[in-house]
Write a structure and sequence with these properties.
By secondary structure, the chain is of the alpha+beta class. It has seven helices and 16 strands. The chain folds into two domains: about 30-300, Alpha carbonic anhydrase (Carbonic Anhydrase II, Roll), CATH 3.10.200; about 305-360. It has helices at about 1-15, 20-50, 50-55, 165-170, 190-195, 255-265, 305-365; strands at about 70, 75, 85, 95-100, 105-110, 115, 125-130, 145, 145-150, 150-160, 175-185, 210, 225-230, 245-250, 250-255, 290. The strands form two sheets. Strands 2, 3, 4, 5, 6, 7, 10, 11, 12, 13, 14, 15 and 16 form a 13-stranded mixed β-sheet that branches. The two termini are about 50 Å apart. Bound molecules: zinc ion (ZN). Zinc ion binds near residues 129, 154 and 235. It comes from Latimeria chalumnae.
Length: about 375
């Protein structure tokens, strides 16, 4: 019986992998790969970025952006969902200005677009822009648990009370920026296409182009209640520490073609391709990163829109494995009991047969 139990335990171990072990292994491998790739790039980028604080004092201060968001160190807290209003510009007659400023591609936005609820005051939109890498090299500014994403969009807002982006830019509560990670999916994103289809028109540094207004809300994730929040800065000089950052947990998918357009179309001075326009992550210096959602029960792998579905599937798979494991164990046990019982019966039957023989022999002796 001891051997039987051991066998059942071994079978159970094979059939019942821990529910989170596989996911963790994959995540750790991704972190390792990203970090090793990152070091080479960081070195090149740092040469320039390390000089920023010589000319702009704030760039060397202790509340700089971007950061690497460590989900394990983030604090889950009750924060209201972001409420964008006036983002649908389809009825607006005035066209929107798209421009290549040599650092990024920027779309100027009307200040009728606002965000509130999650903030202590009303913020008005000013512009949105992008950060990206180059072919095969991701280029988001923020990172999550060591992972960099292919690209990141920033929608910049200023506090209504300051009246303009310029006035608000250096005030501690002056700006609110929404950050969304862009990843590659299988389909062309129709909202991003409304902007990316004009990239060619602003390919040279200094180019401007008027584009038809569209629903800017479509550039953000469907769900705006799950995000990370921290106090930081502009990610380019003068690096003012005036930004309340909101980095959404849900990512947006664009096609590989769309990402390639972003990576390869725009040029800066001397006809050089404008790429890898991200700042390296800055130290937290004790700052707290808040999460508007519960991180304690399970840390979502960012950049995996199917993570929830996968978790559910994995959980179902584990339940099935447990059921089959138990059924298998019970069947095996029943079989072994049956075999042992059968063997006993055989032995008894043999004994009886043997005594019959003796009895018969005795009889036969008597007969003889
Ligand atoms: Zn930015």
């Amino acid at each position: 019986m001891g051997n039987t139990l051991l066998f059942i335990l071994v079978v159970s171990q094979v059939l019942l992998p821990g529910p989170t072990v596989a996911g963790k292994t994959v995540t750790q491998r991704q972190i390792g790969e990203d970090e090793s790739g990152e070091n080479k790039k960081s070195h090149e980028h740092n040469k320039d970025q390390n000089q920023w604080s010589m000319d702009y004092e704030d760039c060397g201060k202790t509340a700089q952006s971007p950061i690497d968001i460590m989900t394990g160190l983030s604090l889950s807290t009750a924060l209201l969902s972001i409420k964008p209003e006036g983002y649908d510009l389809r009825d607006q007659e005035k066209k929107l200005t798209l421009l290549n400023n040599g650092h990024t591609v920027q779309l100027n936005l009307p200040d009728s677009m606002t965000i509130h609820d999650s903030f202590e005051q009303l913020y008005r939109a000013a512009q949105l822009h992008f950060h990206w890498g180059s072919k095969g090299e991701p280029g988001s500014e923020h990172m999550v648990d060591g992972k960099r994403f292919p690209a990141e969009i920033h929608v910049v807002h200023f506090a209504d009370k300051y009246g303009s982006l310029k006035e608000a830019a250096n005030k501690s509560d002056g700006l609110a920026v929404l950050g969304v990670f862009l990843e590659v999916g299988s389909r062309t994103n129709p909202f991003y296409e409304k902007l990316f289809s004009y990239l060619q028109a602003v390919s040279e540094e200094g180019d401007q182009h008027e584009i038809p207004p569209f629903d800017i809300r479509g550039l953000l994730p469907d769900h705006l209640e799950r995000y990370f929040r921290y106090n930081g800065s502009l990610t380019t000089p003068p690096c003012f520490q005036s930004v309340t950052w909101t980095v959404f947990n849900n990512t947006i998918q664009i096609s590989q073609d769309q990402l390639s357009q972003l990576e390869n179309t725009l040029k800066m001075k001397h006809q050089q391709i404008l790429s890898q326009n991200f700042r390296v992550p800055q130290s937290l210096h004790g700052r707290k990163v808040l999460a508007s959602f519960n991180l304690s029960f399970k840390t979502r792998r960012m950049g995996d829109p199917g993570a929830e579905a996968q978790d559910e599937l994995s959980s179902r798979g584990n339940t099935l494995a447990i059921i089959f494991g138990c059924l298998f164990g019970i069947t095996l046990l029943a079989f072994i009991i049956y075999v042992m019982h059968h063997r006993k019966m055989n032995q008894r039957s043999k004994k009886e047969t043997h005594s019959n023989v003796i009895y018969k022999a005795a009889t036969s002796t008597e007969e003889a």
